[in-house]
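Deliverable D4.2, example record:
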Amino acid sequence: MLKLSMTDYKYDFSDRTNSFYWQTNRQITVEELEEIFVNREQKTGKTEAKNATQFALNQIKDPRTIKEVQDRIAQGNINSIFPIILNNNDDNDDSNKDNEFEVKLVIRMHPKGVKNGYFHQEKLLAKLIKKNKIPTYETLYVGDNSSKLGFDFTLTNFVNGTPMSLIKDLQENKTLDENYTFQTGKFMAKINQIKTKGFGSYKLEDAKQNKLVGQFKTLYQHITAGLEQDLDYLVKNETIDEEFKNKIKEIFETHKEIFNLKQGYIIHNDIADWNILVNEKTQKVVGMMDLDESFSGDPVMDISAWSLFFSNERLDYLLKGYKSVTKLPHDFEIRFHIYRLRYLVSKMHLRTRRFQIKSQQEFLTPLIKRGLEVLNEEKQFFSNK
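Output generated by the structure prediction step:
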């Protein structure tokens, strides 16, 4: 739950216990949501990006200097993201003898006054994923309260590529769409084969000791964390009725054996077109980005989460890529649908709550519409079980 910190932080989001999704299961008001996330860009701009980058460079004893802070990258709903151009001041670097050599980094700044507590986990995840020959980024520095800048941040290398979501007319070019989505499925499967301990979000203190350990002993604990809160809100908001709420609880209880996994695996938890970078010349996926939502769980969960945003036709492309790496479990269908339902309950809670913020309504309207459509699909699926 939300708590005031005795440090420079106003809000502490580092504790993800008793939550299925850290944004949804927080006891914060709509006004606080708006202050923290919607208005974050008013408080973290180029000046803050430059100061934080310089602080990080000093800490890692990097002699290079900042040449330019480029315009904000309009990606994501949480962090403020800026590309940073550095001058290469290394006299021992041959590339510096004739011409100044530029290096690009990326800084992601969490909202001011909010303790993130997941950048350390993200750093380990990226390192482990890259070790398994999956294209991603590398974290150079994690800045927390010791930076005295008033916000948490992470400095990473720059991965040169175009987000799939920004490729013009991708959906109309089925050959290209199938190619990129196939590759996405392939890399998703490779990520999902990496074992980690426990289940749920990774614990901060363990991450600081270079260990990835989920906060729960069982997957069932992760699945049911915050469930009652999510359902109560949806009933109160008249997104679902009391009868469907009870049906959903019954579904999770009836299929409890599904969650009896002995081993957890890395779940990216946010694989989508906006987090996949591609090289448009080679038509290769070059970056599986944004690991700050990742946790330890059942690999099918990544497929379920992805499916909430995209068509069944594209899901076929994704699964072809996935199955080129590993087989799907024999009970894939029921797992797919039950995880899809859990994600929906969580996402619809967050979306309908944020919809109360006027500036968010245009963005959220199609997402809520899509969510209601899929919710009805799942209601129909389980009514036949």
